[in-house]
Structures are given as structure tokens and as C-alpha cells.
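#lab-general

N.A. 3:47 PM
ok so I finally got the sequence cleaned up, no stray characters, all 526 residues accounted for. can someone with queue access submit it? mine expired

B.Y. 3:52 PM
send it over

N.A. 3:53 PM
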Amino acid sequence: MRSLLFAALALLGCRTAAPTPQSALEALAASPGGHLGGAVSGLGPPVVLNAEDFVYDAKLSPDAKTAAVSRLGPKSFHLALYTLGGQEPQRRGDPAVTPLEWDVDALDFSPDGAHVAAVCRDGALRVYASADGALEGAWLTEEPLVSLAWSPAGDTVAVGSAKGLVTLLSWPALAFLGEVRAHQDEVRGLAWGAGGVLVSAGWDKRLVVLRVDAPAAPPRAARLATGKRNGVVLFRLLLDGRASGQVTVDNRLPGVVVRAALAEAAGISVSQLTDTTQISTGLGTQVARVAKGRRLAFKTLVLDGVDVAVCDACVPPEAQGVLGASLLAAVDIAFDEAAKAALVSAKDGVPVSQVEARELRVERDYTFPAALNDLSIDAAGEVLGVAFSETKAERTREVYEREKRKETEPEREWDCGARVALATGEVLEKRSGHHGVVATAAISPDGKTLATGGWDKTVRLHLPVGQEAWVDDDYGWAVRRVRFSRDGRWLVTAAWTPLNPLGDHQSDPSAVVYEVRYSSADVAAK
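B.Y. 4:20 PM
back already:
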């Protein structure tokens, strides 16, 4: 079935453009890190990576030799890695990421192409080796994650939540650096712009430009999300920079007490501890081993030299640790039940540790007439590709019922892709043609060409004004992602495909790579 599908798609030559001039391809090969620019005329025949699964995102490595695909398998989400460049792509890794109830919404390669980051609605960022899919690190946040962007320097990863929070993490340590609630709804796109700014796009119809600075002094307070389990209020603590756990507060205990599992995860060999202390509990007096001089981190508020007792019987079953009297003498903890948050502040005179941290502040804030569903940026970091829709790209029962009735959405003014100037927020060019939600938009590296995908099951490559768009309508269901490769030579797409439970399970294309073809091209050096 797969070979037949490839053959059928290869017959679409009538919709392909003439190849890019060989001289431009040779110049590109001689300019590592450079990219093509010029007059795009269309796309080459499709190379299908997946025609079986729901695909949520697909990205190409910086050298375009690897494709990463977030696919929904029978029991879990997977990160499928493909080697490109041969006659047919080869899958070389396919690790399971999460159970199927947690969408893996977005992927991004590190600038060197060695790692692939994935964010999920379970609140986790996970990083995998692009060579074989081995898990290299993970970080759990407090909110569902739906977008991410790796910084050009490769030392920072930005993640966006379904509740408007933008968070920075260091790489490779995956340490918390800073955060800001930039939006009042899902952060649907993130991109690093010229001058080191971070750009975020949201369903709240806003495009926010964030300046990232190092704070002048060590942070003395941190705001943490709280939750409740059996009436016990919990928030997250990082122990020794290695293991995080949910902790609660009880000033009846003498100090900080954690479960053995949390201590061991932080690299503390509990059996080797020789200092002990006695702790009174409802079960009687417990003898606890003590780990001296540990580091406690509440996001960027970090306290060093804290003694931590290890005692499972001293910690309520809902928690992994308890903050007792000695720590509460050093910090104030104020709970905001309405916001489900805790503010932890170091008291006057209590020393806090100097740690790597970043302050995110809003530098520019642009509002548009429609929801922003996706965001990409050109190689110079100056022109954005933005997907707009008059109703946000949210899959609701009403949407599904309308699709079942095969109703065609109208072409509305702000169901479109657009080129937007980062410096001013000006819409440089709007490109329409989709019926209904435009879910994704890609800007070419030279900032001149847009590709878009929508719930009308089409991918559109928008040629210069006055020419008809190149359109592929072979997708069986909603298109979720389009992206140019960093050298401008390729376009990768991701879509949901109708599932086929029979035979070899092959269906409509859901992850596809096309060659971008130029009628005239130049090469910009890195």
C-alpha cells in the first residue's frame, strides 16, 4: 500500500514546478548555514513520511537531513525520527513519549541538530538525542505545554503553556531561569527574534515581544502554582538541582523533611547518612537520617546550606516533602487560593544564592482582530509568519459536528496567513484562500514567501501577488503544521489523517516533505 501511495503521489507532476537552477544549489552547498532566497515558483513531488497516524508536529533538523514527527500511535504518542536524503526516508528512532491522553503539541531541534525537544500537555519538556531518540533530560512544569523555541545560541529553551505562561529553561541543565504570564490564553507560537528578543503569539489575539535580561540581584521571591490533594496544599520544590517533588507546609515539624525516594533521586545516598534527628509524629517518635547543607530551590529563589531530614513516616501520603519550622523562620509563604498560587519570599537578612536567572519583560505588545494560531520567523529574525483565524484553532464538539455534516467554512477576512514586521507589528502582507481556520503559517528564510495550512485539509504555498497559490489538497483532515527548512530548500507538513484500522493501516498523508523550487534564486550566507 505504501509503495502504491508513493507512486500515486509521484504522478502529481502537473502540480510541481521546474527545478531550482543547479547553480543556486551548488552555491548553497558551498555556503554551510546559508539559505536560498528569491522567487519561489512551487514545490516538487511530495515525499511521505507518515500516512497512518494523527501527526501533531513535524520539523526538519538544521541540515535538513533528519525529520522529527510527533505522531499518535495506538497506545501512546511517539517521537518518530527519519533519515532523509535517500530514495525513501528511513525511520531510525520512535520512542514513546506519553500516554495517548496527553498531546505532544510541538517539537524543535537544537541549533546543532543533535537534540530534539518535545512539549506536551502533561506539563513536561523532554529532550531526545536526534541520533537514536534516547531520552536525555526532562523538566516538569505546572501547566500544560503547547509551544517551544530553542534559542539560536542553543543554551536556552523557551516553552509556552496553555494558560499563557512563557518559561525559560537552561540547556543542558534544564534549570528554571524565569517566566512571565504573557498571555491570557494558549501560547500558540514562540520564536527568537533579532537582538535576542523572544516573540510569543496567543489565542488572546496578541503578539508579545519579550526582552530577556539578567536580573541585577539574586531573586528573593518566587511565585509557584499550588494544587490540592485530599485537602493538602502542595507546590513544587527542587532539591539539590536534580529532583523535584511536591511539598506542603507544617510548622509542627522541626525542619525540612523529605521522602527517601526524593532524596535518592537528588543523588543523596540515604543509607550512607550518619547524622540523625528525632521527629515527633502521630505515629510516635521517628528517627530520621539527616543530609547536611543541601540546596533548596523554589524556581529562582535558592537557599543553600539547608539540613534535610529523610523520613517517609513523617511526610503525609499526598506529598513528597514537608517544610517545617526552621525553614519557615527563613521564608514567608503566602497562599492565594483564588489564583491557586503560593508566593515564597526570603525574609530580610536571610542570604539567597546567586543563580543563573533571567527577567522577562514585555517590550512591545501588538493586538490583532483575530486569534494567532502559529508563529514562525525568518533567518534575520525580523519578519514573522503568522497564522490568523477569526475563531481560535480549538477542536470543539461544534467543530466536529460541522465537519461530519461536511459543511464548508466561508472565506473570512482574518482567516489568513500574514507576514508581520517584528519591529512595528505592521502587517506587511495578508494571504487568504483557506476556508475556515488557518492553523499554521511558515515564513521562508528570506522573509518573502508564506506557506499556510488549515482545517480545510489544504496546504497553500503563496506565490507572488498576481500568481495563483500552489495548493495540495490530498490531506484527509486538518493540517496542523508547515515549516520551511533553515536553508529554504524544503517544506515539511503535519496533518491529522483519517485512521484506517484495516490491512496495513495506510491512509491519507499526515507528514510530508516537499522540495521548495525557485525560478530564480540567490544564496545568503549565514
